[in-house]
Design goal:
The complex is a heterodimer.
Chain A (H helix, E strand, L loop, with lengths): L1 H18 L12 H36 L3 H18 L9 H4 L2 H6 L5 H10 L14 H11 L3 H5 L4 H28 L1 H6 L8 H26 L14 H7 L2 H18 L12 H7 L3 E2 L2 E2 H18 L4 H20 L1 H13 L12
Antiparallel strand pairs in A: 1-2
Chain B lengths: L1 H20 L22 E2 L5 E2 L1 E5 L5 E4 L11 E4 L23 E2 L2 E2 L4 H15 L6 H10 L5 E4 L2 E4 L20 H20 L10 E4 L5 E4 L6 H22 L2 H5 L15 H14 L18 H11 L4 H16 L3 H35 L5 H17 L14 H12 L9 H15 L2
Antiparallel strand pairs in B: 1-2, 3-4, 3-5, 6-7, 8-9, 10-11
Helix pairs in contact in B: 2-7, 3-4, 4-5, 5-7, 5-10, 5-11, 7-9, 8-10, 9-10, 10-11, 10-13, 11-12
The chains are: A mainly alpha, B mainly alpha.
Chain lengths: 367, 449
């Protein structure tokens, strides 16, 4: 042990003196800085810009609906809501820094929406969106309830309490935009700090990005979109817990489309593909390839991509209406869940082992 | 741990040298904190997990002066500089404990061994098993999935309110396997309450395609579904793999689970344990959780209907050495205290392989037992059905078993294929004895038995 120690130290000495000091290169030699620049400049910030333009458009249609409360304008709100929800799928995984601080993810996408809480809030006109008890009474699921879930919606908005419903609608979207701008602006202002944090500590950028990506894949994607509705964590299936439940009731494909969009985001992040086009830059994939990470004779990155593609294909093969799939043949959803799950150990054990990154969250298992 | 030290040491060396190279580019200060939080400090964590400082030792006065910085130290005539890992340091690697002879671990004189949640679940399994002939579908599913409807039970002289424990069986069943498995257990409970017991209570005599009760020539009475499955047996034997073995070998004793728990001992008081220590104990709890005295496990204690009952049987038959499991569990837990994770994982592999093998031995045994009964000129169908129902549960369990390298021995679909053979046509009423023996042979081969 000691001998090896000395020899290796010497080899470092030589490199150290010859090459000078480069903070951007972690000790394994991979250029983490380049990876962070690609992910930040070509994925995260463009995805946020896109998202924030969609939520702004949504707010405009809501303003229009408030000014002229008719079915036509409500339909427009529904369309813009879906556009924004699709765009959201590209940023949910980046639960870092400001987003984490203000509980952005929980405020934006806690579902199922708490309908009775929403009704109480509407009528009392008194609520605190920073209170965790109100996380399920705001964000996209609550908008879903308000614009797709109210029976005779237009009648309610034009009824005795219509003003209160409109006011809550406005409060929901302005809170979304306020929070979105906070997070987006921080990404832009903090960009230089973020990309230069190339060390390998729990709070370094790549460590946080990677942890949040895996956590998202496990929780936000695997559990929330598929596992929980399929009843994997409960005694019985919970079809009412699908994402975009109310919109899906009338459109019969919303939850699946959101899940597929999320897969696009997952693939792009892993392979470093730019948000706005198909250009590929530095990424976890490139990093694993740089480290010559293999799995059963193939590169680990290939195995991960193939596994994720298999899972995506399984979702594609499901009934367009996930709720119908759960109610008629839930087994297919469980099999799909298995295929999604297959990537978890590859990411959470194999990948992070190669990257020497520690998992910073503990599965809550109730013991 | 060794790797970590190594990397830290490596960075340390490189940093020291870099600064001595005197580059013109004026690099930003880089480096790592040592285990005392000193930037580029000399302290190192030893193999026992203790942070050891460098110090100056006076060979005449025997005084020790701890150092945070060893650069520019001026030594007096009677002083020597001792680096943390110097061979001459009497502290380095001296904090390790040796494995105790029994599963006894403490911190400041109080036991740190804790697995109450596992004992509770094993007690729940007994209560649920005992409710199979009386519970409605709602009641059985409530017990399984919500962890309520049990009431209180007596355990080692203590009354435990199972309903208030907050523990559940369902959410720990097949937790690391295919998501398609857990619903099979729910379905067995539903069918028992909705199909089997109504037929039994109506006095229906079971036969091929007909659920009810059936008494064999030897006097055994079985309560079965229309395919001849005793669902209390398929359920509870399935739970041995789906709950106990899965939680132990794929959960608590797996490196990924153990590594997810910190092993930070600073600040811990008497009897307090680290997450990693606790995970290991929880793994042990799914095996020994109902033993009256963990320092002297007897197997089968307290009427356990799950893993420990069969651990006792295979130990007695000589098929699996359960003392080796106990020794490995002690050694692995010791390694956690010593922060020696290579040793921890090596001991875990021993325990995981042996525990997995219990499933293979019993699956094979029951399939052969059933086949032999069927091959009699006048087979006792109640006996065959009983054996094969137990066998079905153990086959279901096989998808959770690991080999000595920590790899799954069977895939979910391989297990499903075996189950399909048992379920085909009229199930156990017309299963082919030769097919059962072939299946048992295949299982033996896979386990290297």
């Amino acid at each position: 042990m000691k001998k090896i120690f000395t020899v290796l130290s010497i080899s470092i000495i030589i490199t150290g003196c010859g090459g000078g000091d480069n903070n951007d290169i972690y000790s394994d030699g991979f250029d983490r800085n380049a990876l962070l620049i690609n992910i930040t400049d070509n994925i995260i910030i463009p995805a946020y810009n896109n998202f924030s333009s969609k939520t702004t458009e949504l707010e405009n249609t809501i303003d229009q609906f408030i000014a002229e409360t008719n079915q036509n304008n409500l339909d427009l709100v529904q369309t813009k809501w879906l556009d924004a929800y699709m765009a959201w799928q590209h940023i949910e995984m980046f639960d870092i820094n400001m987003a984490e601080e203000i509980n952005f993810r929980k405020k934006m996408n806690s579902y199922p929406a708490n309908g009775s809480r929403i009704e109480l809030n509407v009528l009392s006109e008194s609520y605190d969106f920073n209170d965790p008890n109100h996380y399920a009474a705001q964000g996209f699921p609550s908008l879903d309830y308000m614009i797709n879930g109210l029976q005779n919606g237009i009648t309610i908005y034009n009824g005795a309490d219509g003003g209160k419903y409109l006011a809550y609608l406005k409060a929901l979207i302005s809170t979304i935009n306020f929070n979105t701008n906070e997070v987006k602006n921080e990404w832009i202002s903090n960009r230089d700090n973020f990309i230069s944090s190339t060390e390998n500590t729990a709070t370094s950028s790549l460590n946080k990005l990677t942890n949040d990506f895996i956590f998202y894949y496990e929780k936000g994607f695997r559990a929330n979109k598929i596992g929980i509705p399929a009843g994997v964590f409960s005694g019985s299936k919970l079809p009412q817990n699908i994402e975009a439940y109310y919109h899906n009731l009338s459109n019969n494909n919303t939850s699946k489309n959101l899940a597929l969009e999320a897969f696009t985001a997952i693939n792009k992040f892993f392979s470093g593909v730019h948000f706005n086009n198909s250009t590929e830059g530095s990424s976890l994939k490139e990093y694993l390839n740089y480290l010559n990470a293999t799995d059963d004779g193939d590169t680990l990155s290939n195995v991960i991509i193939a596994t994720i593609n298999t899972a995506e294909a399984a979702i594609n093969d499901l009934d367009d209406d996930l709720m119908n799939q759960i109610n008629t043949d839930n087994y297919q959803l469980l099999v799909t869940y298995d295929k999604i799950q297959a990537a978890v150990p590859l990411l959470k054990v194999d990948m992070i082992g190669h990257l020497s990154i520690d998992i910073d969250y503990i599965d809550a298992d109730g013991d | 741990m060794k790797t970590k030290n190594f990397i830290k040491g490596l960075l340390l060396s490189s940093v020291i040298i870099l600064s001595s190279c005197g580059t013109d580019s004026d690099p930003e200060p880089v480096g790592v904190n040592d285990c005392n939080g000193i930037l580029n400090g000399p302290a190192l964590i030893d193999d026992c997990g203790d942070c050891q400082q460098a110090y100056v030792y006076d060979v005449v006065s025997h005084t020790v002066q701890l150092l945070d910085d060893v650069n520019d130290v001026e030594l007096g005539q009677t002083e020597i500089l001792v680096m943390p890992d110097d061979a001459s340091s009497p502290y380095w690697n001296q904090g390790c404990i040796t494995a105790p002879s029994t599963y006894t671990f403490d911190r400041m004189g109080q036991s740190t061994v804790s697995y109450g949640g596992q004992s509770t679940r094993l007690l729940m399994a007994i209560e649920l098993y005992n409710s199979f002939t009386t519970g409605s579908e709602t009641e059985l599913l409530e017990m399984f999935n919500n962890g309520t409807g049990f009431g209180s039970v007596d355990f080692n002289g203590t009354t435990i309110d199972l309903d208030a424990s907050g523990k559940k069986l369902g959410n720990k069943t097949a937790a690391y396997g295919s998501a398609t498995v857990k619903p099979l257990f729910d379905a067995m409970l539903s069918k028992q309450a909705n199909v089997v017991m109504p037929a039994v209570n109506a006095g229906t005599i079971a036969s091929a395609g007909v659920a009810g009760s059936f008494t064999g020539v030897g006097g055994r009475t079985v309560k079965v579904d229309e395919k001849g499955f005793e669902l209390n047996q398929t359920f509870i034997k399935g739970l041995i793999g789906g709950l106990c073995v899965d939680q132990i070998v794929n959960g608590y004793l797996s490196p990924s689970k153990l590594n997810s728990g910190d092993n930070e001992t600073s600040g811990l008081g008497a009897g307090e344990y680290t997450n990693m220590e606790h995970y290991w104990d929880e793994g042990l709890g799914y095996l020994y959780g109902l033993e009256a005295d963990i320092t002297a496990p007897t197997f089968s204690a307290n009427g356990s209907v799950l893993l420990n009952k069969y651990a006792g049987k295979v130990n007695t038959s000589g098929d699996v050495d359960m003392n080796a499991v106990y020794t490995a569990l002690i050694a692995g837990r010791t390694a956690i205290v010593n922060m020696d994770y290579v040793e921890r994982d090596a001991q875990a592999l021993i325990a995981r392989e042996h525990i997995s093998k219990i499933l293979g031995v019993k699956a094979s045994d029951y399939l052969r037992g059933g086949a032999e009964q069927l091959q009699n000129s006048t087979p006792d169908m109640a006996e065959a059905i009983h054996d094969l129902s137990e066998g079905y549960g153990f086959v279901l369990s096989l998808q959770f078993a690991l080999d000595g390298g920590g790899n799954y021995l069977f895939t979910n679909s391989e297990v499903n294929n075996m189950l399909a053979i048992l379920e085909a046509g009229n199930g156990l009423w017309d299963v082919d004895a030769a097919a059962l023996i072939q299946m048992a042979d295949d299982i033996d081969a896979r386990f290297g038995m």
